[in-house]
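quick one before i forget lol
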Amino acid sequence: MSVNDKYKKYKPSAPVYLDTRTWPGKAITKPPIWCSVDLRDGNQALVEPMDTARKLKMFKTLVSMGFKEIEIGFPSASDTDFQFCRYLVENKLIPDDVTVQVLTQAREHLIDKTFEALKGCKSAILHLYNSVSTLQRKVVFKQDRAGVKKIASDGAAMVFDRLKHLPDTTLTLQYSPESFTGTELDYALDVCETVLDCWKASKKNKVIINLPATVEMSTPNIYADQIEWMSNNFSERDRVILSLHPHNDRGTGVAATELGLMAGADRVEGTLFGNGERTGNVDIVTLGLNMFTQGIDPELDFSDINKLIETAEFCNQLPVHQRHPYAGLLVHTAFSGSHQDAIRKGMEAISKSNDPFWEVPYLPIDPNDIGRTYEAIIRVNSQSGKAGAAWLLEQEHNINIPRGAQIQFSQAVQGVADKTGKEITSDMIWGIFEEEFLQKGKFSLHKFKSKKISKDENTEFIEATIEYNGEKIKISSKGNGPISAFVNAMRDHFNLTFMLNDFGQNTRSSGSSAEAAAYIEIKVPDEKGRSVFGVGIDTSITLAPIKAVISAINRI
């Protein structure tokens, strides 16, 4: 086989032949029953499994988020898991509205150990599993259909026989045909029905049938077809809580889960940020926030995403990727100039609108809803345009420079970005702004005073001392306001030929020491008719525009 023919050794997934499929026309309208498997499936995938302190932190975080079902371990396979289960029970750390789940294989001594772990527990789910796939039957168990089915039925019978050992525990039973996605559907159904009958499942005594994509093997639509086929073919659907347990081997775990819910599933098992074996379990954070952005309450609390990341990174000793959906540090950040401009305009529009719906370009979720500020929405590098730097000046320094000034300022920022090849931080942007508009030039203001010439006129007289190339020069003039008078004085005394074109001002802070920021545009009578902008900052609303005039003149 040539290099180019290597793909031929892989079999395509078999499609599911449904006379009618309903899931493509459905929508998710409510959250599923959520079950976190961070402490079991997630934990067993770690290089360094969690100790008790890390497990307890994860458990408490999951409870605070609103999980009502939490798989806490595999107590029959791990003494650490057994002891953690006992620790939670004996110290009464399981809230009354939370049900813990434990996993066991279909072996007698393991089942006995599992019942021992649950003694004294108020509410629990006992999760029994065995692998039923064609491949596992052939190469692992070396048994036919009947032999593997007997493993399931014998295990179910042993569990049922021992229910009397937990008389004070509200016990829900769960069965997983492991590697369901690699199993013939008729056979998977047969095994599940056998377990349901053994456990005397009924409408009043529902059993969880969990259908795991233990290894994600196909496109999400095939998984959805498998789920719909199973949902339609149970002899008594109302005695089943149909659960999904997807993994992410093909990178489509979230999509498979969403389609599986449309196909009839009631419940989802997954982990925070998708930790788990190989490429991980399905990510409940992404699933929940996908629902959130469709106007559905996921009934899980994601309002402090940074805390969830902190918990996951501490407990798992694994970083959450900066591009992780919703949660990553960079996912609400725009570097591109056109994106920045659109976001800025969107934020301005929504602040002025009475529309209750969130609609901002490039931001599918309001960062505030998950505990993020707007500070990191726009960041500046060599790919950014004028909007990025202007946004940061506005948001972090309350400087609202006019659009024309934004263009001039962005050129200065772009020059630094191109030179360094790095992200331009907020502090760097402020430094560039100071250098461009606020630093002392050939003209600087030393003293200034103004007064009205008479009560009946708007004419004002100004006197100022200007430092020009190290020399202090007194100037004076009159005009229809202090700015006009000062402009006249500067033109007359220094033989300058510019025209005042526009003026704007805003308050930078509140209180007795509030600063004003003033923006001046002057026209230079050259062949291009250039506009030059200046900025002045002062606690005096009179001096701020005077300083802005000086700033503009220095930039001619």
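fyi The chain is about 40% helix and 20% strand.
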